[in-house]
Structures are given as C-alpha cells and as structure tokens.
Amino acid sequence: MQHILERAKRIRAVAFDVDGVLTDGSLYLTDSGEEIKAFNSHDGHGIKMLKASGVKIALITGRESRCVALKAKDWGVTLVYQDAKVKLPAFEALLKELELDASACAYVGDDLIDLPVMLRCGLAICVPAAPALVKRHAHYVTCLEGGRGAVREICEMIMQAQDTLDTHLATYLK
Questions:
Q1: What is the pLDDT of residues 86-119, one digit of tens each?
Q2: Closest C-alpha to 123, from 25, 15, 19, 21
Q3: pLDDT tens-digit readout, 32-41
Q4: Is 122 within 8 Å of 111 (Cβ atoms)?
C-alpha cells in the first residue's frame, strides 16, 4: 500500500471512466429510449472534496450521455470527454490542456477499453468487477464496487496521501 500512496502523492489530476466506475455499469432505458444512470451521492461528494483540495477532475467515457453532462455540471467538472471509443487520445488531450505529465495523472477504469490509459498514467486504478486482465495492470484495485463508493474511496486515499483529508474533515467539525 505504501507504494500506492507514494504514487498518489504526485497526482494532480484524476480521470474517471463513467459506466462501471461512477455507476454500477447498469444502463436503464425508458420506453422512449432515454438513458438513465444511477450515481452514488458519496462518490459525488468525494469528487467535490478532491476537487476542493486542488486536484483536477476529468471524466472520460466511451458513451455519449446527457446524464453524464448533467452530473458533471452538478459536481463542477468541466473536463468531460464523451463518446471516446478510444480513450487514449482523450487522455492525451487532457494532459495537454492541463499541461501535465502522465505521471501526475491517475486514471480509474473497469474494462479493456481503459487499458491504454491505465498503462500510460501515473496511478492506474480499477474496481473489483474489472476483468482479471485489467486488474493485472492496475496499481490499485478498490475495495468498494463501481457506483457503490469506489470513487469516494479513491478520492479519500489521494487526499490522505497528500495530507489534505484531515484539513477538509476539520471544516465539518467547526
């Protein structure tokens, strides 16, 4: 775990996949064909906490969804890359926009489409439901499932490594 925390200390941006990471991977459709996704409120608060600590947040998803745009706006996330069927170009665009080296960026994914970014970033993370091949290339596999607190776990881990979690917690205890 210590080597993971050492990597987490250097992180200046985190890019999250959406389906399977910020959600449990289920896709719900209404009779009219509108897509519905369920997001975890603890995960959303974790994103807001990490963002407040100075870490940039991005979403990179292979699907196009109005739900994602709405949640990103709710969380104050402006770095959103949708319909990224191949995710590495979106990740490279993110690095260029933020003027960061890949080693300063974490990526959280859950499937094969995420592997190229996981192999390029400084801290590769996946959720427990990820295929074995993806887990094999992750520096860290979360304890909690996607859409069920995994993102909050990651946000708190990075904040703990960067000594910002206790400062943030103190704002609630005033």
A1: 999 999 999 999 999 999 999 999 999 999 999 9
A2: 15
A3: 988 889 999 9
A4: no
Homologous superfamily of the 2-168 domain (CATH) = HAD superfamily/HAD-like (3.40.50.1000)
Q: How many residues are given for the chain?
A: 174
Domain ranges of the chain: 2-168
Nearest to 26 by CA among 116, 115, 129: 129
Please report, for residues 25, 31, 109, 113, 140, the alpha-carbon distance to residue 129 in angstroms, rounded to integers and kept in the order given: 10, 29, 10, 14, 13
DSSP three-state, residue 11 = coil
Q: How far apart are CA 27 and CA 144, in angstroms?
A: 20
Residue 24: DSSP 8-state: -
Please state the pTM of the whole predicted model.
0.95
